Amino acid sequence: MVTATHTRLLKTLAKQFGFDYCGIAKAQVLDEDARRLEAWLNKGLHGKMRYMENYFDLRTDPSKLVPGAKSVITLLKNYYPSERLNGDLKISKYAYGQDYHDVIRASLKAMMHEAQEKIGAFSGRGFVDSAPVLERSWAQRSGLGWIGRNGNLITKESGSFYFIATLITDLELEYDDPLAKDFCGSCRRCIEACPTEAIGEDKVINGSQCISYFTIELKDEIIPEEMKGKFQNWMFGCDACQDVCPWNRFSKPHSEAAFSPLPEILNLSTKEWEELSEETFRKIFKHSPLSRSKHKGIQRNVKFLKA
């Protein structure tokens, strides 16, 4: 009875603090995921993202992150915008507003505090890309959706434009049934739409070929010459595989004020991006995901697209 009460409370709090979905899975070692991750890393499909090789055991065993872990709570927050870009250069929709790490981290912290006030002391840690957690695997185990051919978590009700947050706790809770079925069927739209052929037939994503990798993760001064003409004007990130996904016809605009697009994101022309000074960039994009690439990276990307 206590388990059911705690479960209801946490799901109610998830809605109260702005999350659109909440699913719960039993904390356990992800043996199958560990094998897949190891094979992916061994093939070098992570490119120069060396951080992905670190803390392997933490990625696959939640008890290494929270001792005595019993439950993994997955939370989804919609970021699909109602606005559209007016300029020629394209930016991934997740980066239109404030940095989601800051926004979601604050919500998780407040949710945890409220839960501990009502339940009493318990251990738990919230993660938003801040630790080696296999978020999509836990989301699928929590019944929230399935991992599509494009590697994204897809919900049957409203597509894939969601941030994923994870809360690992030592509370024993009621667990949701995992989604066993893959609703991608025979659809290959994401494979055919990927400008750099980063999506394999077997749901294996070549991270080192993804436009998001080149425009965000890669810190080299020069983007490889062989990628010329393939980016379709994506300057920061890429949504090509999500934009063509049939399930995203159900996407609805978010209601999170912090994700409202910066005017500059929507309206800057290619010339204005080129002429943007470092000082102005820092001032405008201080709290934006674009700050991750820094002024130098954005300028590199713009020049690459223009060349």
From TrEMBL:
Residue ranges annotated for the 4Fe-4S ferredoxin-type domain, each copy included: 175-204
Pfam entry (one): Fer4_16
InterPro entries reported in the protein's UniProt record: 4Fe4S_Fe-S-bd, 4Fe4S_Fe_S_CS, QueG, QueG_DUF1730
Active site: D129
Entry GO terms, CC: cytoplasm
Pathway named in the protein's UniProt entry: tRNA modification; tRNA-queuosine biosynthesis
Positions of cob(II)alamin binding: R59, D129, N150, L153, I164, S212, C238, D239
Role noted for this protein: Catalyzes the conversion of epoxyqueuosine (oQ) to queuosine (Q), which is a hypermodified base found in the wobble positions of tRNA(Asp), tRNA(Asn), tRNA(His) and tRNA(Tyr).
NCBIfam families linked: tRNA epoxyqueuosine(34) reductase QueG (TIGR00276)
Entry protein name: Epoxyqueuosine reductase
Naturally occurring in which organism (per UniProt): Flavisolibacter ginsenosidimutans
Originating gene: queG
